[in-house]
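Minimal example, chain plus 2-deoxy-2-amino glucitol-6-phosphate.
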Amino acid sequence: MCGIVGYLGSKQVVPLLLDGLKRLEYRGYDSAGVVVRQNGDLRTVRAEGKLEKLVQKLEGKIPPGTYGLGHTRWATHGEPSERNAHPMIDSKGRVAIIHNGIIENFLPLKRRLQDEGWSFSSETDTEVAANLISSYLEEDLRAAVTRAAGELEGMYALAVVSTVGDPEIVVTRQGPPLVVGFGDGEQFLASDPAALIAHTKDVVFLENRDVARLTAEGIEIWDETGERVERPVTRLNWDPIQVEKGGYKHFMLKEIHEQPLAVQETFAGRVDFENQRVLLDDLNLDPDQARAVSKIDILACGTSWHAGLVGKFLIQGLAGIPVEVDYGSEFRYRDPIVTPTDIALGISQSGETADTLSALEAAGERGARLFSICNVPGSQIVRMTDGVIYTHAGPEIGVASTKAFTTQLVALYLLALYLRQTRKGGIEPELLQALAHLPAAVDEVLQLEPQLERLARDYSRANDFLYLGRGLNYPIALEGALKLKEISYIHAEGYPAGEMKHGPIALIDEDLPIVAIATGERVYEKVRSNMQEAKARDGIVIALTDREPAEFEGIAREVIQVPRVSEELQPIINVIPLQMLAYHVGVKRGADVDQPRNLAKSVTVE
Ligand code: AGP
């Protein structure tokens, strides 16, 4: 994950920037850099690799200066290299910028700027923003940043310094967090308060599309309409555990909120948006081998098994390869038919789940090549498989999987695209554009939290819940039910909506909340009919939909309206309100949401 820090004051800036970056080290990154304004010029030092490499490079030649920016980068556009590292300077050398996020419309902007004579020395989307801001820069950096930000689509947290005017740093965000901190005659900024608390406790969390200017006098903030605003100052009296939880009450909530960045990191560096290609180097499945695959056996447990069920739709739909999905604990006891052209794909967040490992072993004994999707480098599943797609979700501490699940879905989408590319000759640009837009849509769906908290209050005393979905959303119904069971100890069933009439309909009465997922086109009308059937039996229908709430008048008591994304990525959006619902119901019922009873983060026994 990219890390952002900045300082403006009277102290030497580079040691402060390095200290802040060090506190963000846990996020992982592939390059780092700093920029300082010195005698009217912007001086950057950047290095590929760990922060240590940057520190070595700076040894004995720390650029003097009292304001600047520091960045740790996790590649999204362009390989990890010094050339692609931040800070980025525009081609006229007037602004330096650090950036976290994805600028979805970077290609048309780049072409336009190239036509206007701006040049590019990296493959990053960040350099597009640098040139764009510079193209609008006259006297006022804030005006230039505001104007450029108005043209950017996607997600970004940006911090900018320039060669013009008095010392100042201008920042803005849309999606990824940015926090500014007040000191005595000095101001700070960071992507994460953890980088600030050694220096200041008084901070402001910027709202989306805020623009803030840090100067020696203080911090001024403008909202998205251009109005000067005062944002509430938060005092961070955090103990070390709170620091770890990033100020959230529970790890689970923090991890739910990390998903915009987590999903982005899963595809970061693996998609060449300019040439429309997916690159899965660690997978070790070359194009010839990919073309020869006759069947894929997905093996997993729990939430990872639900990811596998979505994966089946994705791989069959996008690459035309037959897929079977088994519980790890069932596979080897059913005499599966496996041939040497089959591949077995184990999905495991921890990489240590005994049932999944045994199932993979059984597939290997029958001649399949073994692959994995995993979040933990060096874990057992990685060691026993020929290739891996790491989810790069970052550590997941809450026992209930949240970001591990959504990133598994992204990894499966990447795999399906890679197989499509090798077997069908290419990937349509819209399939990649949908991915670029995903982090912003995930950020948008998180804004539904107040509604989910209210629903949790209203329904937390229910004894049972029913979750319904069809097609790609059936596994999401299963996952919604599993989350609620784990976190709140309320009994919940996930069912294919069309199956309801074959049994579970008998459960419906006026006390049963039924969460029905009705998004997309394919089975929308069918699910809506299933909702009507539930309503006719007095059930409390809660619709989760990408349509207007009016379409559910007289059917649903509650409507959770989520943003619409591509059909293949919609499950990622749909599951997030269900995670938040489970979380808030668990909290309302006083359950230990981070460590639910009887559960363990990795289940290493069969
Ligand atoms: C998810 O919330 C669960 N705690 C559980 O179902 C989990 O997904 C399962 O045990 C598999 O774990 P893994 O992904 O680490 O293999």
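The chain has three domains: 3-245, 270-438, 447-588. The longest helix spans residues 403-424.
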